[in-house]
Amino acid sequence: MGAWTGGATDKLGVFRSSDRTFSLDLNGNGTWDAGDTAFTFNDSNVPGTDVLQPIAGKWGGGPVAMVGLWDQTTGMLYLNTYGQQTWGSGSTPGSVINLALYAGSNYAPISGDWNGDGITDFGFYKSSTQTFYLLNLNGSLVTGTATYGSWGASGNQPVVF
User: pLDDT tens-digit profile of 73-84?
Assistant: First the structure.
């Protein structure tokens, strides 16, 4: 879900991991038609497909939501920061952030504006310890609100909007 064309209305979006394709309902009518778009993340430097998890946010703080991919094996976060619904120059993402500290299947990626600056940040929920790790866009922990322990029960999934 994201405001793919700007504004306050979120629209549907899906990610097919088998071929790394995003399909976004740009016109918001809930039907796949000529007003929508699909594009593929084709970075040959990123191995595998089954470990990539989609994430969305307004990374630049503007009105348009953009997609990203979290590689749980390597801890690399790939963000589309070009402001359009493609991977920009040469099918590569606009920003690559190394978060190897959070690699592994125990961490679920989340996104939200943790500090109220209008820019979507990201974070992780570790279900085995029920801990949220809230990060700024540069990958550093958010001062004063970095972690929340014992929230939920083991095996719970995060809900962030």
Answer: 888 888 877 655
